[in-house]
User: Which sequence fits this backbone?
């Protein structure tokens, strides 16, 4: 028996989002969070999920000043500075301090950091493809369209990088 009725009639009741739709979104959140958490297993505990999120967003920028990265992540610049200190010590990030000011530094992934992000990204892509292959092609197309709309509606504060910052999301 399916977890929930997935027919379009459950999504909206008038202008309000139906409770059934919220249940579906909560279930999808749990699935995606599970994929994100399991993907870090390939790193044997090298970084936490929040640390990986910052590394992944930095990878999308290529090079970024600390305040730019903080804004994209919706966190304080001081948190980025502390993160950078730890990731530089671990060999994942390099920093170009301008006039010795750590809070105005330009950050970039090191080769080791790029490899780390690449390993996780590859695992996630393979796992998401495995999951999606269980759906008929037409449903995969609908899912991709709906998720793109969700990402765009959520905006940059949830980690999405705008096309003007890091190329078209695709």
Assistant:
């Amino acid at each position: 028996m399916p977890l929930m009725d997935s027919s379009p009639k459950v999504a909206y009741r008038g202008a309000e989002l139906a409770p059934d739709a919220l249940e579906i979104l909560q279930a999808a959140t749990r699935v995606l969070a599970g994929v994100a958490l399991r993907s870090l297993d390939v790193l044997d505990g090298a970084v936490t999920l929040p640390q990986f999120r910052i590394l992944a967003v930095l990878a999308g920028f290529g090079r970024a000043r600390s305040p730019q990265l903080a804004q994209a992540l919706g966190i304080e610049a001081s948190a980025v500075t502390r993160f950078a200190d730890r990731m530089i010590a671990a060999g994942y990030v390099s920093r170009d301090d301008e006039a010795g000011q750590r809070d105005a530094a330009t950050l970039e992934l090191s080769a080791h950091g790029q490899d780390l992000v690449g390993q996780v990204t590859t695992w996630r892509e393979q796992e998401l493809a495995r999951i999606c292959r269980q759906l008929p092609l037409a449903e995969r197309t609908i899912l991709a369209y709906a998720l793109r709309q969700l990402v765009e509606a959520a905006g940059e504060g949830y980690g999405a990088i705008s096309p003007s910052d890091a190329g078209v999301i695709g």
Remarks:
- The chain has seven helices and five strands.
- The chain has two domains: 10-42+114-158, 45-113.
